[in-house]
Amino acid sequence: MPERDEIIGxxxxxxxxxxxxxxxxxxxxxxxxxxxxxxxxxxxxxxPRLADALxxxxxxxxxxxxxxxxxxxxxxxxxxxxxxxxxxxxxxLHPVEALHGDIGVxxxxxxxxxxxxxxxxxxxxxxxxxxxxxxxxxxGILGNPASPLAREMDIVIPATVRAEADPxxxxxxxxxxxxxxxxxxxxxxxxxxxxxxxxxxxxxHPNGQLGRNLRLKVADAMHTGDRVxxxxxxxxxxxxxxxxxxxxxxxxxxxxxxxxxxxLITDGDLRRALRAHDDIRExxxxxxxxxxxxxxxxxxxxxxxxxxxEDRPSQISVLPVVDHATGRCLGLLRLHDIYQADSRPK
Length: 346
Known about the structure:
Number of domains: 2
Distance between the termini: 48 Å
Strand content: 5-15%
CATH topology of the largest domain: Rossmann fold
Number of helices: 14
CATH architecture of the largest domain: 3-Layer(aba) Sandwich
Number of strands: 10
């Protein structure tokens, strides 16, 4: 078999020399644009029915059962996973297996969501009446709102597309994207209707990065005490370099006599100072520190800290942790500490 480097080299050569590769890139870009346009076009026709579907789901006392076949089945499975991730019990029911016993997973009080482009899939047409016997309210996300399956539904959310995104109008692309977006709209809308809180998301994601960031506080991950480089405003710059080298967290906290944060000196500040001054012997910490650094409280979540670091024009990699009631600096939190593998609180 070809070696990895050989394959990469062959692909790189084709990228620069093959006109077909350029055409493929243009088609790929067109697919993205077509799918985005299909979702936008579906908004107007789907919005009124989305509201009706959300009212029905909000009144449901059981779980949500999603179903579909082929690519629509994958969309339905993802939909169930999204509902579950927001604390709404949901399962995917394969329509073929459902007709051979798995329909037992559906009980009275459950609501069902059918996903289909054509609305003529035989297995779904048989499954509809079977679920009707359980008095399940049924919602259809259907590409053909006038299809036989649509007549079985209590609510039909149109997922019609003018054409698929591929040049041959064959591959389920735009239709799958629209159905997926409508499923996301239902899941997020229902979560909001049920008063969903980030803490609930953390509860059902106990071992993932998102859940960890929501569950843990800054105090659980920050560095304190001797692990932090502490200096005073009058500390010589040479000593600042020595201290930050001994405690390599990426910054030194500059404290006043009362322990309040006077400023912050990052590794970048040190490099800029050394570049700007041939003689640093007269420089003090106060000469190069940032006097109003971005800070965070110890009881803030790691999710809040991450947003504070990254959702800004110029990202930062370290935050002083400050008791905002007293102004006293308690420690440092690095971006690395948020992303570290160990998810156990310290």
